Amino acid sequence: TSNDDESGVIHRKKFIGVKEYQSVDSRFYCAAVAPTRRFTLLGDCSTITLWNFTEAKPLEYNDSFTSDASVCDFTLDERYAVVGSKKGTIIVWNFDQNKTVATFKGHMNQCSAIGVPRDVESENLLASGSRDTNVKLWDMRSKKAAGTFKGHEELVTGVDISPDNQYIASSSLDGSVKVWDVCGGKCIKTFAASAVLGVKDICFNPAQYCVAAACGDRRIRYYDLNTFELISASHKDSTPCTKICFKADGSCLYAANTDNMKAYDLEANCVLDIVMKPHRKVLDLACGGDFIFVADHTNKSVIVSSVDERLLNFDQAVEISRSVSNAGSAAVKQTFYQKNSGSEPGESYGS
User: Which Pfam families does the UniProt entry name for this protein (predicted)?
Assistant: First the structure.
């Protein structure tokens, strides 16, 4: 690539700014990116807005909540948005028709995590986690809870459904990772993953029966669910990773913190590449369509940035340079959003 030098050293890349969304009269609490359809989902005080990367105003609104949105995600086919609120209610929104197709109530406190299936045929399932410490499985067909899984002692930070839909993995501020049998309704394994600041996020490998955990002690831990053994624990990073996702083929894990995103080979326990970004809180990390997207939060704005996945290094033998390539600097298109305003949101461009 253009970031290689003659010695075979890979220079660190930088995320390119795609779009900045600024709220004039409120703040955004959650965000999600649909990498294929190039949509951004933003949640603020009781309103959900859907945006694309080019328009200056939202494509659709949803104001079904009576409390702040707390977490959101897209389904695999990017046709539906799943949004949880601080009161624990979860809605499923068909934004192409601008219609709420399901409302789930059952959590006694804030919905803090959402997990969607990895194949379109199983999109009738939905998992969630809450500040009430419970994990729930929901059936989209019956519009009812299909199971409640109790065992965590603090807020649930992440939930994910296994590729075969047989298991749910959950992470918590209590420092544990739990694996639940969907049919049996029981916890089949608890990993004491992090004694410091809990576990931030959890993700199944789409190609192997393994699960990765982003831990508060600044490490990524990778577990084999056939043997229930620890495969690897990464070296301590400068700051805790807060969002993780696997490459589509499961060959590496992307892990984002406030300063950068790293590509890990978890089997070899090594860093393959590093992509730098400005120091901001990460709300979402998603990959698809040859690009990796990160949604960052700062003050009253959400900034979506991207990097071309094809430019990353996946060769263990290649050294990563400490220098940063200048390739990829770009102006960020800004959209200013004011709730309940009859005026069109304005645009500006900044470096």
Answer: WD40 (PF00400)
Mean pLDDT, rounded, for 53-82:
90
How many other C-beta atoms lie within 10 A of the C-beta of residue 311?
17
Q: How many CB atoms lie within 10 A of CB 319?
A: 11
Torsion angle of C-alpha atoms 69, 70, 75, 78, degrees rounded to 10: 60
130 beta partners: 111
Q: How far apart are CA 252 and CA 309, in angstroms?
A: 12
Boundaries of every domain in the chain: 10-350
Q: What is the DSSP string of 243-283?
A: EEEE-TTSS-EEEE-SSEEEEEETTTTEEEEEEE--S-EEE
Instruction: Read off the pLDDT band of 118 (50, 70, 90).
Output: confident
Q: Is the pLDDT of residue 70 over 90?
A: yes
CA pseudo-torsion sign 100, 88, 200, 133: negative
Please state whether the predicted TM-score (pTM) of the whole model is above 0.85: yes
